[in-house]
Design goal:
Layout (H helix, E strand, L loop, with lengths): L1 E6 L2 H12 L6 E5 L9 E2 L7 H10 L2 E6 L2 H5 L2 H7 L7 E3 L3 H8 L1 H10 L7 E4 L4 H9 L5 E5 L8 E4 L2 H12 L10 E4 L5 E9 L4 E3 L4 E2 L2 E3 L3 E4 L4 E4 L6 H21 L6 E10 L2 E8 L7 H4 L7 H10 L13 E8 L23 E4 L2 E4 L2 E4 L3 E9 L2 H14 L20
Parallel strand pairs: 1-2, 1-4, 2-3, 4-5
Antiparallel strand pairs: 6-9, 7-8, 7-9, 10-11, 10-16, 12-15, 13-14, 15-18, 16-17, 18-22, 19-22, 20-21
C-alpha cells in the first residue's frame, strides 16, 4: 500500500518512521516533509492547502491512505474534499472531517460541547465586540491569573495568561481588535486552573477507541517553566503522576463522553483526538482538544507503541478498531528539543547542522530542517527533537542530554531541565 503523510515537523518525522516500519507499506510520500523524513520516504513539495494537487498526485501514485499530521488542512475540509469527490472516495483519510475538526478550530464550539456532555472543564464566557463589557465583568469575578484564548486557530500563539486585571482587559481589547486576525473575532475568557498538566491521546474510528501513551510537554522557553510559551521544548512519557486510577477517571469522565458526544452530534470522527488535560487535586479537567497528535509529544509516544500503526489506521478507516491490538512499551521516553536562537520570537534560518551522524543511543527527529545540497540546515524555530528510551526518566534524559551537546548549529538553545519536575528536582 502506498501512503501519503501530510506535514513537515517533528511529529511527522516520528509518524513517518513508524509508518515505514509496517510490512503493509510499499511507498511513503511526505508532503512536504523535511530533511529527516527524506531518509524514510519520498518528500514531495506540495503545499498542504492545495487539495486538488494532493488528490491528483495520490491518484497518480496509487495511494490508498492519507494520514493528515497537521490541523489546518482538517479544519479547512481536507477529509471532506476526498469524501465528497467520487474520484477520490476510495482513498482512506486519517483525520476528521471539518465538523469534527471544530473541536480544535473553534474553542467556543469545544467548550459548548464539553458543557453539553458534562465533560469537566474550566468555567468560561465567550466574548465578542457585542458583549465585551460582560466579558470584563466576568473577568473581575475570577481570581488571577486571567486566561484569554482566541476562538480560532492561531498557530499555537492564541492563549494568553495574564496576572494583572488591567493588562488582561487591555489584552482582551487587542484580541478583539485583530491581534490574532480572524482567530480572535471571538475570545474565550476562562477560569485559571492550577495543577499538573498532561496530554492523553486516542485513536478512534468514531465508535471504538484505543488509548495511546500519555505524555507531558514543556511549553515555556526558560527553565523552571519561565519565559514565553513555545510550541514545546520537550516531553516525557509515561507521566508518573498519571497512575492507573487517574487514567481510569480520564477514560470514564472525558474520553468516553467525548466519543459518545461526537456520535450523538452525528459527527463521523476518524483519527487522533488529543486531550490537553490538567490534574487538579487528582481530578482531570480538559484544557483543550486537538484533532491530531501533539508535537513534541508524538516524539515520545510513537517510540513507545510496539504495534503496527498502519494496522491501527486501517482499523480507524474501516470502523474495526475494536478488532486491533495495541501494545505499549513499559520504557520511559523523553525528548529534548533543540531550537534556534531567539525562538519563540524572531530567529534566523539557514544554519548548518553538524554531527547528527555521531548520535548513538537516541533517535533524532527533524522538526525545522531542510537540505541545501548535501548540508542539513535549520529551517524553523524548533529544529531537532532528541528522543531516548530508558528504564527511568533519569536514564533516558542522560542519553538525550549527552546527544544535545554533540549536535551543533549556530545559536543552538535547549532547556536543561526537561522532566526534572517529575523527579522533584526543581
Amino acid at each position: 500500500m502506498n501512503i501519503i503523510l501530510i506535514g513537515s515537523g517533528g511529529r511527522e518525522h516520528a509518524l513517518a518512521v513508524k509508518i515505514k516500519e509496517s510490512k503493509l507499506v510499499d511507498k511513503l510520500y511526505i508532503l512536504p516533509g523535511n530533511a529527516g523524513t527524506a531518509s524514510v520516504g519520498i518528500n514531495v513539495d506540495i503545499s498542504s492547502d492545495n487539495f486538488k494537487k494532493i488528490a491528483n498526485f495520490a491518484v497518480a501514485k496509487q495511494v490508498k491512505m492519507i494520514v493528515v499530521g497537521t490541523e489546518i488542512p482538517l479544519a479547512n475540509g481536507f477529509h471532506d474534499y476526498f469524501f465528497e469527490n467520487k474520484k477520490y472516495k476510495h482513498i482512506k483519510i486519517i483525520g476528521p472531517k471539518k465538523d469534527g475538526a471544530k473541536i480544535e478550530s473553534s474553542k467556543d464550539f469545544a467548550k459548548k460541547f464539553m458543557l453539553k456532555y458534562n465533560i469537566p472543564t474550566a468555567k468560561y464566557i465567550t466574548v465578542s465586540e457585542i458583549n465585551k463589557e460582560e466579558g470584563k465583568k466576568f473577568m473581575h469575578s475570577l481570581n488571577q491569573p486571567y486566561v484569554l484564548k482566541a476562538d480560532g486557530l492561531a498557530a499555537g500563539k492564541g492563549v494568553l495568561i495574564i496576572d494583572d486585571i488591567n493588562d488582561a482587559e487591555k489584552a482582551l481589547d487587542e484580541m478583539l481588535d485583530g491581534k490574532f486576525g480572524k482567530a480572535s473575532n471571538k475570545v474565550i475568557i476562562e477560569e485559571f486552573l492550577s495543577g499538573n498538566e498532561l496530554s492523553v491521546f486516542v485513536l478512534t474510528d468514531g465508535k471504538n477507541y484505543k488509548i495511546l501513551p500519555e505524555a507531558k510537554d514543556y511549553k515555556r522557553i526558560g527553565e523552571a517553566d519561565t519565559g514565553l510559551n513555545t510550541g514545546g521544548m520537550g516531553a516525557v512519557s509515561p507521566v508518573p503522576f498519571a497512575n492507573k486510577e487517574f487514567l481510569k477517571k480520564v477514560e470514564n469522565q472525558i474520553i468516553i463522553p467525548t466519543i459518545n458526544g461526537l456520535n450523538n452530534e452525528k459527527i463521523d470522527y476518524k483519527g487522533f483526538i488529543f486531550f490537553g488535560l490538567i490534574s487538579v487535586n487528582n481530578k482531570p479537567f480538559v484544557i483543550e482538544y486537538n484533532v491530531r497528535a501533539g508535537d513534541p509529544e508524538t516524539e515520545v509516544i510513537i517510540p513507545r507503541i510496539e504495534s503496527d500503526i498502519v494496522e491501527l489506521f486501517l482499523g480507524v478507516s474501516n470502523g474495526t478498531l475494536n478488532e486491533k491490538q495495541i501494545k505499549i512499551s513499559p520504557k520511559t521516553a523523553v525528548t529534548v528539543m533543540l531550537v534556534s536562537a531567539g525562538y519563540p520570537e524572531a530567529y534566523s534560518k539557514g544554519k548548518i547542522i553538524k554531527n547528527i551522524n555521531k548520535i548513538t543511543d537516541s533517535i533524532v527527529f527533524h522538526a525545522g530542517t531542510k537540505y541545501i545540497g548535501n548540508e542539513i540546515i535549520t529551517n524553523g524555530g524548533r529544529v531537532i527533537a532528541i528522543t531516548s528510551l530508558g528504564n527511568s526518566i533519569e536514564e533516558a534524559l542522560k542519553k538525550s542530554y549527552k546527544n544535545a551537546e554533540i549536535i551543533d548549529f549556530e545559536g543552538k538553545n535547549y532547556r536543561n531541565d526537561i522532566g526534572f519536575d517529575l523527579n522533584n528536582k526543581y
